[in-house]
């Protein structure tokens, strides 16, 4: 089991960790638009392990047409053993050093406190943002991480990515939750573009992680 979280005042939104809140869709952070989608992507331990490894090595982002650049480790301590209560509050922190892993191209896996830059195009418009990895979870049946905006994006907010291997039916599910507050002038003027952007991102993430899609966009 590996869990980590990292919080400081460098993100550009207030509700850090709110993608873990069970009532996100009913009560999103102020001025933000929530979104949530889940997909069944297979079953069994091998599917879970393969999908989890792909997720932590940025496959959802890179295969969705976004470049992952300027990846930097946490500037402060990370914490392990963190979980979340029913309201999404972090509990039971304990400090522990975690060994950093790298993919075949030398890119580090997602780690709590890491900062990175994403670049690409979404919904026909430029996507360029600095992000922080708020938390990482690696449990026996759940793998995931949370990304929060630091600056430079047309929206500000958070995304959580989770791979869950369900004990009751052996199914593996991929869930993405997010809340986006319009930041750029066009998105503030036309908030419908925020939903369009999110729908396209969700479709790209599914193509990246699901075995039904062999080729990235």
SSE topology:
Blueprint: E1 2-5, E2 33-43, H1 45-56, H2 59-62, E3 67-72, E4 79-80, E5 83-84, E6 90-91, E7 94-95, E8 115-122, E9 125-138, E10 142-151, E11 155-165, E12 171-182, H3 185-189, H4 192-209
Biggest beta-sheet profile: 10 strands, antiparallel
What's the number of extended β-strand segments? 12
Mean pLDDT: 84
Individual helix count: 4
Low-pLDDT regions: 4-9, 78-83, 93-97
Q: β content, as a range?
A: 35-45%
Specify the overall morphology. globular
Distance between the termini: 32 Å
Rg over alpha carbons: 16 Å
> How much helix is in the residues?
10-25%
Given helix and strand content, the structural type is: alpha+beta
Q: Return the string of H and E elements.
A: EEHHEEEEEEEEEEHH
Report on the structure:
By secondary structure, the protein is an alpha+beta fold. Helices cover 18% and strands 39% of the residues. It has four helices and twelve strands; from the N terminus they run E-E-H-H-E-E-E-E-E-E-E-E-E-E-H-H. Strands 1, 2, 3, 4, 7, 8, 9, 10, 11 and 12 form a ten-stranded antiparallel sheet that branches. Strands 5-6 form a two-stranded antiparallel sheet. The two termini are 32 Å apart. 38% of the residues are buried. About 8% of the residues have low confidence.
Summarize the entry for a quick read.
The protein is α+β, with helices and mostly antiparallel strands. It has helices spanning 45-56, 59-62, 185-189, 192-209; strands spanning 2-5, 33-43, 67-72, 79-80, 83-84, 90-91, 94-95, 115-122, 125-138, 142-151, 155-165, 171-182.
């Amino acid at each position: 089991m590996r869990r980590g979280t990292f919080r400081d005042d460098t993100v550009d939104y207030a509700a850090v960790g709110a993608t873990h809140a069970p009532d996100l869709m009913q009560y999103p952070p102020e001025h933000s638009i929530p979104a949530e989608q889940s997909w069944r992507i297979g079953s069994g331990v091998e599917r879970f392990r393969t999908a989890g490894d792909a997720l932590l090595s940025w496959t959802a982002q890179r295969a969705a047409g976004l470049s992952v650049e300027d990846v930097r480790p946490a500037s402060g301590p990370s914490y392990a053993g963190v979980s979340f209560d029913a309201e999404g509050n972090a509990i039971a922190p304990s400090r522990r050093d975690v060994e950093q892993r790298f993919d075949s191209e030398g890119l580090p896996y997602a780690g709590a406190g890491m900062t990175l830059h994403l670049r690409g195009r979404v919904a026909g418009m430029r996507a360029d943002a600095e992000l922080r990895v708020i938390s990482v979870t690696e449990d026996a049946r759940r793998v995931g991480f949370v990304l929060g905006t630091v600056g430079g994006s047309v929206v500000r907010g958070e995304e959580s990515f989770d791979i869950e291997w369900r004990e009751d039916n052996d199914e593996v599910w991929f869930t993405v939750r997010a809340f986006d507050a319009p930041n750029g002038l066009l998105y503030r003027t036309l908030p419908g573009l925020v939903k369009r952007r999110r729908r396209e991102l969700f479709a790209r993430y599914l193509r990246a992680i699901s075995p039904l899609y062999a080729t990235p966009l």
